[in-house]
């Protein structure tokens, strides 16, 4: 066989091997899914099935009109997306027992329906996220908006990261919106779309029912997303999530101390309470620096881990 023929055969063989490898790589990406679907889902919800809708669904005590095809399909869409958003939804289910009691208590204090806790899930997956636009915390609050409502937001302190204070901020917004619109569904939608934006569409479309309004996609999906989380968190197994009680995150136990002066070094401060800076920050993410100058002498409540905080039960 001539050298040229051997070269051609070898070249063909190499190209064939490369194409085969590339095919396997592409198939691997396809099986892993795209966007927020990831490999963590390989052990759950891999049956690729839809889920039957309940006969009746409500948000904040207000009935969702599932007899309407658009309403029905909108809810179904969010359930399917959430159920197959595997690892993220698993993490939300695990976090819910830790953070829902905190949010529920504040909602009750403000006489706001318990279902509003699912808006925090829709906003941030129950975590202190920062959006591309700069919205921050469990309730995704913009800096200027938070400051206007009296939140302390600076390089040392950012109360948007404080779950209690940010939830109170959200509750005050909900109450003002409820007073304006007279129903909880629109009050919830206004938190996402803004009152001005909602008012414009109500005036243009001559409609006052959330389910009859054509809204921007984010706000149009907002209530349905919250209700999807409500259904899945309440009954994970029905949607393919198999978690035991031991796998859920417990409420973090802590004590509180008041500080009304400067703290030069929170690492040293933490040692005084038999803990470390890492755990102190875990409980107090609103402390943005390892110190506070506190020139005004303001009183801050700092959470200190209770005995046995880090021990797994």
Short synopsis of the structure:
The chain contains 11 helices and 4 strands. It has 313 residues and is mainly α. The protein has helices spanning 3-32, 69-83, 86-109, 117-124, 143-148, 163-181, 184-193, 195-205, 217-234, 266-271, 277-283, and strands at residues 58-59, 62-63, 254-259, 300-305.
Would you give an account of this structure?
- The protein is globular, with a radius of gyration of 25 Å.
- A hairpin with a 2-residue loop joins strand 1 and strand 2.
- The protein has 313 residues and is mainly alpha-helical.
- The relative contact order is 0.11.
- The strands form two sheets. The chain has a two-stranded antiparallel sheet with strand order 1-2.
- The chain has helices spanning 3-32, 69-83, 86-109, 117-124, 143-148, 163-181, 184-193, 195-205, 217-234, 266-271, 277-283; strands at residues 58-59, 62-63, 254-259, 300-305.
- Mean pLDDT is 89; it is low at 1-5 and 24-44.
- 49% of the residues lie in helices and 5% in strands.
- The chain folds into two domains: 58-247, Lysozyme (Orthogonal Bundle); 254-305.
- The longest helix has 30 residues, at 3-32.
- Helix 4 crosses helix 9 (217-234) and helix 6 packs across helix 7.
- It contains eleven helices and four strands, in the order H-E-E-H-H-H-H-H-H-H-H-E-H-H-E.
């Amino acid at each position: 066989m001539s050298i040229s023929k051997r070269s051609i055969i070898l070249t063909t063989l190499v190209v064939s091997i490369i194409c085969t490898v590339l095919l396997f790589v592409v198939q691997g990406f396809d099986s892993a899914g795209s966007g927020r679907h990831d490999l963590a889902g390989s052990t759950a919800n891999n049956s690729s099935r839809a889920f039957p809708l309940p006969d009746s669904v409500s948000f904040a005590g207000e009935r969702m009109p599932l007899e309407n095809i658009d309403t029905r399909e909108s809810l179904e869409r969010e359930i399917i997306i959430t159920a197959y958003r595997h690892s993220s939804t698993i993490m939300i289910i695990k976090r819910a027992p830790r953070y829902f009691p905190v949010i529920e208590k504040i909602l009750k204090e403000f006489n706001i329906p318990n279902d509003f806790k699912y808006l925090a899930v829709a906003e941030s997956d129950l975590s202190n996220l920062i959006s591309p636009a700069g919205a921050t915390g469990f309730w995704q609050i913009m800096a200027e908006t938070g400051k206007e409502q009296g939140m302390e937001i600076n390089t040392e302190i950012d109360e948007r990261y404080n779950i209690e204070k940010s939830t109170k901020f959200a509750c005050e917004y909900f109450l003002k919106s409820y007073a304006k619109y007279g129903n909880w569904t629109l009050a919830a939608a206004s938190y996402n779309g803004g009152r001005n934006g909602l008012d414009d569409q109500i005036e243009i479309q001559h409609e006052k029912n959330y389910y009859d309004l054509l809204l921007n996609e984010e706000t149009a999906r907002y209530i349905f997303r919250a209700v999807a989380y409500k259904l899945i968190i309440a009954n994970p197994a029905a949607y393919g999530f198999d978690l035991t009680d031991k796998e859920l995150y417990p409420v973090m136990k802590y004590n509180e101390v008041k500080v009304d002066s400067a703290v030069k070094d929170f690492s040293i401060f933490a040692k005084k309470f038999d803990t470390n800076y890492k755990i102190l920050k875990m409980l107090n993410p609103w402390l943005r620096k390892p110190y506070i100058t506190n020139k005004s002498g303001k009183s801050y409540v700092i959470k200190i881990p209770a005995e046995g905080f880090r021990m797994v039960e």
